[in-house]
Fold this sequence. Notes:
Order of helices and strands: EEEHEHHEEEEEEHEH
Number of helices: 5
Strand content: 15-25%
Structural class: alpha/beta
Helix content: 10-25%
CATH superfamily: Ribonuclease Z/Hydroxyacylglutathione hydrolase-like
InterPro entries: MBL_Glyoxalase_II, Metallo-B-lactamas, RibonucZ/Hydroxyglut_hydro
GO molecular function: hydrolase activity; metal ion binding
Number of domains: 1
CATH architecture: 4-Layer Sandwich
Oligomer: single chain
Cofactor: Zn(2+)
Number of strands: 11
Radius of gyration: 15 Å
Shape: globular
Keywords: Hydrolase, Metal-binding, Zinc
Domain Metallo-beta-lactamase: 13-170
Amino acid sequence: MIDNLAQGVQAFTSNVFLVDGDRTVLIDAGANFDVVDAVRSRVDGLDALLLTHTHRDHVGNLEDVKSAFDVDAWGYDPSIEGVDREIADEDRVAIGNHEYLALHTPGHKDDHLCFYSAEAGVLFAGDLVFQNGSFGRTDLPEGDRGTLIESLDRVLEIVDEDLSELHTGHGPSVTTEPYDHVELAARMARQV
């Protein structure tokens, strides 16, 4: 089960996905709301916290989550404060009841990761791509449009066209033809 704990929150935050199952995982910690209470109202504990990237809106609650649930934060670059363990490009990670492929997808931020499970048909895209062909900002430090386009193209090469769920760092998840939204983002990124 995948539950967006930030849904309906009226604060500047990222989406925060709780994936329950064999390995209960939180994807991103969000910011500016009580994510610890939100987790506790749904599950007894967490096995891990995975980060798509370390922009403030995704990690503002990081220390609260780590402390409350005695979990490590896993991300691409363990030299960044708060990231305890490394997830390298193409590492496989257990999330819920499925194995996911971690994809290093810079362009929005250098340490950006997406998580994809072919078996589940699920892509956690962070701020790489959003609904309706939107894509991550490249005007922030470490942002680069060309690199973002390369990351979008890589995701399109790896992700199956039968993708059933696209969970994004902001806005609604996409369950109707999500692969098309990634394709559109790759086209739109080239036009701006």
